[in-house]
Amino acid sequence: MSDPIFERIAIVGAGLIGSSIARAATAYGAAGSVSLYDASDDVRARAEGLDLGNVTATLADAVQDADCVILCVPVGALAPVAKAAVAHMKPGAILTDVGSVKKQAAEALISADNGAVLIIPGHPIAGTEQSGPEAGFPTLFKGAWHILTPQDGKDAVYADAVQKLTDFWTALGAKVETMDPARHDRVLAITSHLPHLIAFNIVSTAFDMETVEEGEVVKFSAGGFRDFTRIAASDPVMWRDVFLNNKEAVLECLGRFSEDLAALQRAIRWGDGDFLMQEFTRARTIRKAVIDAGQDSGAVNFGRNQNGVKDGG
Ligand code: NAP
């Protein structure tokens, strides 16, 4: 195995993403050692039992000797956690995150800048509907995109750090791309945030109807509904923070979505089969494009495998 990219990394937030990074960094030799800290006593105890690395009692203990600190907490918690981490990080170390929203996350990290650390926000487009340290697995990032949103106008030292972080995520199996944070948030609003909102909404509507239909919504859920329930089982805290922090882009997508939905509603009402055919045929070509781009499997059973389905919130 070649030399690790970082001698020592620290992960703050030992849930699905944090524990997956810990597992992958160790499994693929991307880090010489891994320290983990989580605010929850219970999560720390569970992480210790899973042998994910050196679980520390304080945030300071985890980050103080790290070459790279990766914040894996909900987006709403990033600002105070970044501030607390930077206070104990060594000069020249990298501070990054995995938050699903990038404009607010970047602002949160940059607001903690003390001029001694190198701040490079990031987001792996890989995940599942599960949470907690037990839910992670080392292959989560294999073949997935990892988006970095580096700051503009920085020096050569910063550029080297961006390259090092790129090498780290590449070693974990990801394909790395850099992007402007606002553009990231517009793209993810339609590819991830709106689909989750629709799933939360359809499950909520069905939940209300469930009492009317006496259990039949769940009984016959294989008709399509069950796939929405999987997405809607995602962590409520994470998704609350995504919507609160990517408000504008999500509302813009939602406006367009509502118009298109109204057009379908009109076509059903007036029996416009041609319009329905045209829209459904177009949708089918997009599914093919997603499979051709390697973003899902064309296998039956919805491409599920033993590691679960990768969504990327
Ligand atoms: P998770 O499994 O719930 O893990 C988050 C962990 O952070 C929890 O153990 C939580 O503890 C802990 N935490 C919360 N506040 C903290 C604080 N102030 N200091 C230290 N630890 C704290 O969530 P996740 O799915 O890994 O998501 C983590 C981040 O990854 C989020 O920013 C999310 O947007 C991003 N992300 C998620 C996905 C996905 O599909 N899940 C994909 C890509 C990126 P408690 O549970 O006790 O609060």
UniProtKB/TrEMBL annotation:
Entries under InterPro entries matching the protein: 6-PGluconate_DH-like_C_sf, NAD(P)-bd_dom_sf, PDH_C, PDH_N, Preph/Arog_dehydrog, Prephen_DH
MF annotations from Gene Ontology: NAD+ binding; prephenate dehydrogenase (NAD+) activity; prephenate dehydrogenase (NADP+) activity
Pfam entry (one): PDH_N
Keywords from the UniProt entry: Amino-acid biosynthesis, Aromatic amino acid biosynthesis, NAD, Oxidoreductase, Tyrosine biosynthesis
Its EC number(s): 1.3.1.12
One of the GO biological process terms: tyrosine biosynthetic process
Keyword Acetylation: no
Leading EC class: oxidoreductase
Pathway membership: Amino-acid biosynthesis; L-tyrosine biosynthesis; (4-hydroxyphenyl)pyruvate from prephenate (NAD(+) route): step 1/1
Domain of life: Bacteria
Span of domain Prephenate/arogenate dehydrogenase: 7-298
Catalytic activity: prephenate + NAD(+) = 3-(4-hydroxyphenyl)pyruvate + CO2 + NADH
Family statement: Belongs to the prephenate/arogenate dehydrogenase family.
PANTHER family (UniProt xref): PREPHENATE DEHYDROGENASE (PTHR21363), PREPHENATE DEHYDROGENASE [NADP(+)] (PTHR21363:SF0)
Protein's name according to its UniProt entry: prephenate dehydrogenase
